[in-house]
Amino acid sequence: MNWDHMRILLALHRAGSLRGAASALKVNHATVARALEGAEYSLGTRLFDRSARGLALTQPGELLLPHAQEMEQRMLEVQRRLTGLDSVPSGIVRVSLPPSFGHGFFVSILVEFTELFPDIRIDAVATNKISDLSRQEADVSIRAARQIDDDLVGRRMVDYVNAAFATPDYISAHPDLVSSLGEGAHWIGWGTDDMWIAQTPLPKATPRHKLPEVFMQTEAAAAGLGMAWVPAFLGDTHPDLVRVPGVPVGPGRSIWVLMHGDLRNSARVRAFVDFIAEWIAARRSMFTA
User: Fold this and answer.
1) How many helices (DSSP H) and strands (DSSP E) are in the chain?
2) CB 19 within 8 Å of CB 31
3) Looking at the chain, which residues constitute the CATH 3.40.190.290 domain(s)?
4) CB under 8 Å to 274, separation ≥6 — which residues?
């Protein structure tokens, strides 16, 4: 079986369309269409049924799918092992991280890291999607999570706290926030429901707007729309926000730095992961207080 054929089959199966597969493979639509036609001609069978709803595997396609997945895993394993053979800390490290971490926190790390390792280039992707390290979507993944279930090599760097942030003017306009448990005030909302509000020190504050990203929540709070309940190490860096006085911090999540086991001996990846660990350890109080 030809790996290129199997690669096309996997991309089309995962995307469900020619355009989606083209985007994943970073080629144009016509290239994928020709590759599929060539694969089906070479194999002597139709691999996908086409309809208005997209592409669906035929019976021969279903039969080939597990073999294609096995071939992919073997190819990725070879690539990871080759990547891990380097002994000099130079080259590119692809890093995925939540968008909110890119506002101040990650850039501060990057500045100091670049001074020590000028020959390593960081290619960062800001996403809340969990990158699949086994498929080499990234070399290193920085995540905020309570627990990690992936079969990966990684470190739990620190457990951070959340805190309430608002502008000084907003706090002055609501002088009884603590004694009233937030009555009359507003939280900048997030998530699919408002159950989290009951777990905060100000459970009587009502939600105003729902914004999916921490940086959107802090900007809304900085504009005077309400209070933001966000990771303290991020809120503390915003020039227009202060912690709401008298409101205790609450538990947040853990910061994890993860990589695939095959990359543990890669000098550039190791240098980056070790540096982050040391950087956070030296500033532990900014995450926990």
Assistant:
1) 10, 11
2) no
3) 91-289
4) none
For 98-114, give the DSSP string: -GGGGTTHHHHHHHHHH
Burial grade of 118 (CB within 10 A; 0-12, 13-18, 19 or more): exposed
Domain with CATH 1.10.10.10 in the chain: 3-83
3-83 topology per CATH: Arc Repressor Mutant, subunit A (1.10.10)
Selection from 198, 199, 230, 233 nearest residue 213 by Cα: 230
Q: How far is CA 138 from the centre of its chain?
A: 10
| Buried b or exposed e, range 244-279, using 16+ CB within 10 angstroms | beebebeebebbbbbbbebbeebbbbbbbbebbeee
* 162 contacts 231 by C-beta, under 8 angstroms: yes
Please give the Cα distance from 254 to 54 (Å, whole number).
39
Half-sphere exposure of 7 (CA within 13 A, CB side): 14
Query: What's the predicted TM-score (pTM) here?
Result: 0.66
CA–CA separation, 233 vs 161, rounded Å? 8
Q: What is the dihedral of CA 183, 189, 194, 196, to 10 degrees?
A: -80
Radius of gyration of the chain (CA): 24
pLDDT tens track for 43-77: 888 999 888 888 999 998 888 898 888 888 877 77
Class of the 91-289 domain?
alpha beta
Contact predicate 57/65, CB 8 Å: yes
Beta bridge partners of 161: 251
Encoding tokens for residue 176? 């009884």
Q: How far apart are CA 169 and CA 240, in angstroms?
A: 10
For the chain, what percent of residues have pLDDT higher than 90? 49
Q: For residue 66, what are the contacts with CB-CB under 8 A and spacing of at least 6? A: none
